[in-house]
Amino acid sequence: MERDYAYYKQVFAGQRLPFAFVDLDLFSANVRAVQSRAGTKRVRLASKSIRCVDLLRRILATDPQFQGIMCYTAREAVWLAGQGFTDLLVGYPAWHPDDLAAVAQATAKGAQITLMVDSVAHIDQIEAVAAHQDVRLPVCIELDMSIDVPGLHFGVWRSPLRSPAQVQPLLARLKATPHVMLAGIMGYEAQIAGVGDNFRGQGMQNRLVRALKRRSARVAAERRAAVVAQIEAVGHTLRFVNGGGTGSLATTRAEACVTEITVGSGFYSPALFDNYHTFRFQPAAAYAIEIVRLPAPDLYTCLGGGYIASGAVGPEKQPQPYLPAGARLLPREGAGEVQTPVRYAGPDHLALGDPIFLRHSKAGEVCEHFPRLLLVSDRQIVGEAATYRGQGQTFL
User: Fold this and answer.
1) Architecture of domain 51-263
2) Under the phi-then-psi rule, with left for phi > 0, alpha for psi from -120 to 50, and beta for the rest, what region is 46?
3) Are the CB atoms for 355 and 9 separated by under 8 Å?
4) pLDDT value at position 202?
5) What SS3 class is residue 90?
6) Closest to 15 measured CA to CA, from 306, 381, 382
7) How is 157-214 classified by DSSP, letter by letter?
8) In the chain, what is the greatest distance between 2 CA atoms, to the nearest angstrom?
9) Helix intervals (H) in 198-311
10) Spatial contact of 217 and 162, defined as CB atoms under 8 Å apart
11) So what's the pLDDT on residue 105?
């Protein structure tokens, strides 16, 4: 499904810039690719990487293999429950009593929301609120999936729990909490799922990252299986065992105890996901900025465009010029808040008012900058979908 500059320029002729869009033909191809790579495992959608209710619905309607949503805040989960979504897992701990009370009140009205915990303190906080609201709230225990090698913590700092011994106090506490029950466990192997290993010109580093990923996959499988066995041995019944991400589908699906894999970025396939050697999804989401200056030959300055991705700051977190092919940012300016110069010396003629298309480094974050996504299929705009921002929702 090759797309060139002329294709999108014709599709968006006369459209006011800037705008963001999703190519539904490529999006659907990514949905099918995710489903295929997940094998027999259920796929839970990572809402933070989509941030659009219409597109969440579109994926869930594709096939029963797509079940449930991993939310990024408790308030988002409550809001999505109000939109009719079910099986909502909050991927990060919620602490503030008002947030927990909102979940409890939604649960009392029939919402299906599971909270994340990784400490006895989390359980106690939820128990206090749930008891006050007179409801029973399900929780998920998060395991740490990072590994330590000499001089390097390979992974992200999430849960402090790695072993059955560290999980045991939480299991014991859950046996004594009448208003909190265990629903599942999860472990996000971020160093496999979210770290590229095929960067151009970084052969030695790519090989090192791949080796660390192989080791991480073995550790993750052993760690998760050991905790599942422990939980079952003490009499708890798990509704789900969650793992993975877009970049770890192939390894996470191989774990027998895993029942579902969370996927988000693969549906839009942002620029960071061009740097994996085992798979390549289609660039389904992008945004366009308008050329407003011609300061020098082969240099085109556009209005806005500086949508930088979260995480450790580096050039890979900048948006990447997508079309016309061969366009690139200037190292000393990059993508700016109010203007972005782009160098281009290719065959496509560019003039004032023309668009330059860029892809965000990460997935759903770009939706925080646009109230809507234009939907494209078969060479035409076929509709639009409101982002979270367009529906007046900003959760973080």
Assistant:
1) Alpha-Beta Barrel (3.20)
2) beta
3) yes
4) 83
5) strand
6) 381
7) ---S--SHHHHHHHHHHHHT-TTEEEEEEEE--HHHHS-----TT-HHHHHHHHHHHH
8) 72
9) 203-233, 249-252, 265-268
10) no
11) 98
Residue pointed to by tokens 């890979």 = 316
**The two three-digit tokens of residue 340, written as one number:** 């972005």
Per-residue pLDDT reduced to its tens digit, 1-48: 779 999 999 999 999 999 999 999 999 999 999 999 999 999 999 999
Residue whose pair of structure tokens reads 């300061």 in the numeric block: 295
pLDDT digits (tens, 9 = 90+) for 127-156: 999 999 999 999 999 999 999 889 889 889
What is 285-391's CATH topology? Lyase, Ornithine Decarboxylase; Chain A, domain 1 (2.40.37)
Residue 389's φ and ψ, nearest 5 degrees, are -60, -40
d(CA 322, CA 196): 19
Distance CA 313, CA 335 (A): 13
> Which residue, 62, 29, 55, is CA-closest to 372?
55
Q: How far is CA 351 from the centre of its chain?
A: 35
Report residue 150 CA to chain centroid gap: 29
End-to-end CA distance of the chain: 35
Nearest to 76 by CA among 49, 58, 41: 49
Distance, CA of 396 to CA of 73 (rounded, Å): 8
Q: Please name which of 382, 381, 363, 384 lies closest in space to residue 373, comparing C-alpha atoms.
A: 384
Q: Residues near 202 by Cβ (< 8 Å), separated by ≥ 6?
A: none
What local confidence, expressed as pLDDT, does residue 396 receive? 92
Position 321, amino acid: P
Query: How far is Cα 306 from Cα 334, in angstroms, rounded to an integer?
Result: 8
Alpha-carbon distance 376 to 328, whole Å?
Answer: 25
Which stretches in the chain have pLDDT values below 50? none
Sorted by where each begins, the domain ranges of the chain are 51-263, 285-391
